[in-house]
Amino acid sequence: MIFFSRFLLTWLTRCGLIALLAWGGSAQANDLSQRLASADHVLLMRHAYAPGIGDPTGYVLGRCETQRVLNDEGKAQATRTGQWLRQQGVQQAEVHSSPWCRCLQTAERLGLGTPLNTPALASFFDQPEQAGAQTAALQRLIAERLARKGTQALILVTHDVNIRAFTGASVRSGEMVLARVNAQGQSLDHQVLPLR
Asked: Residues of the signal sequence (predicted)?
């Protein structure tokens, strides 16, 4: 009888631990959506994979055929990322995108709403002297939108140079950065999320 009681206690303890771990996994999965529902977190994403570096000489911002754009791998990557975000509980989002076609393509394929073409997210890769002004514009955008967005997530699709200037993190194509910000839209700390 004592052996059976010990066996039962051990079994229940293990089951309880497994249940607790499973519950903790769910809590972690929902952690992203909870943070993004708050007024002090924003998700920045570098556009999905678009082969090459920079843009061809003489590109025109409003003409996708003159720019680097997503290839099939990049399109699939953006779609997977949108699916993953929904699995994390991100069902509603205010999505903003850089005017560059590869960013707009990425934002659209997330499937979280029609992206807003937002100049504050524009690349300054060709004009590094604009880093300060663009980062200040990004901070103003974040402060403004977080104050008005309610509980929906704020997702910004932009470029590595913009994310690096804002958070200090350099990210690969398709990577996301969860940033905690103050009321002025300045980055306080951040976490780079694994590539999807």
From this structure: 1-29
Three-class SS of the chain:
CHHHHHHHHHHHHHHHHHHHHHHHHHHHHHHHHHHHHCCCEEEEEECCCCCCCCCCCCCCCCCHHHCCCCCHHHHHHHHHHHHHHHHCCCCCEEEEECCCHHHHHHHHHCCCCCCEECHHHCCCCCCHHHHHHHHHHHHHHHHHHHHHCCCCEEEEEECHHHHHHHHCCCCCCCCEEEEEECCCCCEEEEEEECCC
Strand partners, 153: 93
What value does the mean pLDDT take over residues 14-36? 55
Per-domain boundaries in the chain: 35-53+61-193
Instruction: Evaluate the CA torsion angle 72, 89, 183, 146 in order and state its sign.
Output: positive
Residue reference for tokens 């707009």: 104
Lookup result for tokens 């249940």: 19
- Contact status, residue 125 vs residue 161, Cβ threshold 8 Å: yes
CATH for 35-53+61-193 is: 3.40.50.1240
| pLDDT tens per residue, range 60-105 | 998 999 999 999 999 999 999 999 999 999 998 999 999 999 999 9
